[in-house]
Amino acid sequence: MDKPHLVLEFEKPLRELEKQMESLRRMSKEQNISVSKEVTAIEKKIANTKKEIFSNLTAWQKVQLARHPLRPHALDYIKTIFEDFQELHGDRRFRDDRALIGGTAFFEQKPVMIIAEQKGRDTKDKLANNFGMPNPEGYRKANRLMKLAEKFNMPVICIIDTPGAHCGIGAEERHVAEAIAVNLRDMSSLKVPIIAVVIGEGGSGGALGIGVADKVLIMQYAYYSVISPEGCAAILWKDRANSPKAAAALKISAQELKELGVIDEIINEPFGGAHRDPAEAGELLKNSISSHLNLLRDISTNMLVEQRYQKFRNMGVIEKSSSKSNKSSRTDSKKKEATG
Fold it and tell me: What is the C-alpha to C-alpha distance for residues 250 and 166, in angstroms, rounded to an integer?
């Protein structure tokens, strides 16, 4: 029996059909009767329902998928697509931060440095990992590992999955904003290829603190935003009930981010989300990282750093109005009025 919190509201019609399918197959096995006709009919209905649901998801429903309790986390992907992961601990200043993990591994027989935000699966892990919200020491650990990767000429793979950086008193006392800012500065000039991929939540500076990369990728149902929809709703409407409206306004879905030029590629997920087939999701992620990494390895170091710098400098659209041109326009208007 499904736990209620493991099935999202909009997934319930699909889950009911899947239960009917399971019941029919169980009955067929127990009573040794053929139900192939009924199974075929339900399979067709399941396919149509999937298409109807997942072809018309709202921004808020995509946010819910990004947070799905069964969605693969960073360690799930690390175990399936990398080899010989050796975790490295601590920032050499304060302590080890379990919300942000990192270490060396092999990817297609070549060494890489992995830096990842890890939420945790059960209650114990979630508490130990602070629900994937790094403290300053987490970002300082990431910085230490990036510089180690640069020293040994290893590409850096960053896996982003966080609601945001921890904003408690301790984090502020230990200068979380400064730790993130240092990472932004140092990543912009790191002399090795960097790939960042958003696999679930990409919240605010917590995500950007390991997100300055040559290629920024995003899973199909992940999101990347300057603030969570709930936070935005609380600020603008003083009511978190407006979170769906905020999600739509923030333009945080993968498709919208691609159109805005914030990310470089959308990695398709198994139909219905990565949680429905983690193995396939891992294979799709691996293929995407592989293709981008092979291209980046062929670029000279100087060109790599310059392209990365220009990539982020060119983001966004800035409109300027010249006071001189405005003054000229007003003068021309007055002349026309005077001459009739």
Answer: 22
